[in-house]
Amino acid sequence: MFTSNKIWSKAVVVSLLSTGFLVSSVTAGELTIYSSVESDNLKIFSENFSKANPSIKVNWVRDSTGVIQARVIAEKDNPRNDVFFGHAATDLLALDEMGMFLPYSPQGVDKLDARFRDKKSPPTWTGLWGFAAAICFNTVEAQKRNIPQPKTWADLTKPIYKGQITMPNPISSGTGFLNVAGWIQIMGQDKAWAFMDQLNNNIVSYTHSGSKPCNQAAAGEYVVGISLPGRAASLKSKGAPIAVIIPEEGIGWEMQGVAVMKSTKNQADAKTFVDWAVSQAAMASYASRVEMVALPVSTPPKSNMPVEVTKLMIDNDFAWAAKNKAAILAEWRKRFDVKSEPKKK
Asked: For 201, how many CA atoms within 13 A lie in the half-sphere containing its CB?
């Protein structure tokens, strides 16, 4: 099992889970936390919690959003985690409907942006930060291949982009789902599915990681990666030849949240973790890595982050997305799953 001081590989964690060796913590001073935060971000966030709370050992279990969601539903009769951290609000809402969470109002929750707060009192989950959609565009490779820079989602359906685009799989990736749910809300059902049919003609593969398409574009494997603004900004700051494009029609977005499992045997430490997760110090940590946080902080704006991100984020209906997610994913799977990349063993 890996702790907040050292993050093991996903393969090791999955092995522990599948063989049944991982169990929910039952003693004070230890927590098992499920998370779908990108690995490099989780390493920083977990280390910050460990420094602030050295007496609490955290067994972190990290995987993509869809994998974590499927696992916890499979474990619903015998839950193995104490807390969710950095899991998509759309999925937290679905688990909340199943009665999995302990109502808890963390210290300082009233100071958070209203968009990030559960409307129930006391809340059963709390939003922490938001992540949105963006196009990562390799300017060097595009020039070599005489491919124009897109300005809109619709541009990506043009034949010139055929074989040059990757995007996240919405079944396994929260980033993938926020795109699909966003397109449906922006365009309406019929036009959105027609758009995705055309886009699919140009897609090389659907990845199981939200950041991978941007990494691929930055490396010059493909010209276009539909991904995350935060990832694109970080790669650009490191010298990658990419433009960070926020399509003019608007972008879908999701928030990452925290919640305590009703089944936890360690409520005290679980609540300590949630209190930390909404603290000013934690928010400053998030702000250095993501697009927007639930609490205003004085951290300098992320370098190369487009100002259009917050301006073009849609008025996302999280309740609608949670209610319709299964049907949306079933339709997506039927139409497009054949192009999904193989899952790692």
From this structure: 13
Q: Which residues of the chain does CATH 3.40.190.10 include?
A: 2-130+254-293, 134-251+315-339
Q: What residue ranges in 48-159 does DSSP mark as E strands?
A: 57-62, 83-88, 126-132, 134-138
Three-class DSSP category at 35: strand
The fold adopted by the segment(s) 134-251+315-339 is: D-Maltodextrin-Binding Protein; domain 2 (3.40.190)
Helix residue spans in the chain (DSSP H): 10-19, 39-52, 65-74, 89-97, 139-145, 174-187, 189-202, 212-218, 229-237, 267-277, 280-287, 308-312, 318-336
pTM equals: 0.84
Q: What CA–CA distance (Å, rounded) separates 214 from 218?
A: 6
291, 56 in Cβ contact below 8 A? no
226, containing H or E segment: strand 224-227
Contact by Cβ (8 Å): 84, 259: yes
- pLDDT in the model for residue 288: 84
Q: Which tokens is 340 given?
A: 């999904």
Contact call for residues 286 and 45 (beta carbons, < 8 A):
yes
Distance of CA 116 to the CA centre of its chain: 15
Mean pLDDT by 10 residues, the chain (345 residues): 36 36 58 95 96 97 94 96 97 96 96 93 96 97 98 98 98 95 98 98 97 98 96 95 98 97 97 98 91 86 88 94 96 98 81
Burial string for 263-302 (b: 16+ CB within 10 Å, else e) reads bbebeebbbbbbbbbbbeebbebbbebbbbbbbebeeeeb
Q: Please tell me what DSSP assigns to residue 246.
A: -
Give the residue from 29, 28, 31, 27 showing the smallest Cα distance to 2: 31
Q: What does CATH list as the number for 2-130+254-293?
A: 3.40.190.10
Q: What pLDDT shows up at residue 18?
A: 35
In degrees, rounded to 5, the angle at the alpha carbon of residue 116 between the alpha carbons of residues 226 and 55 is 100
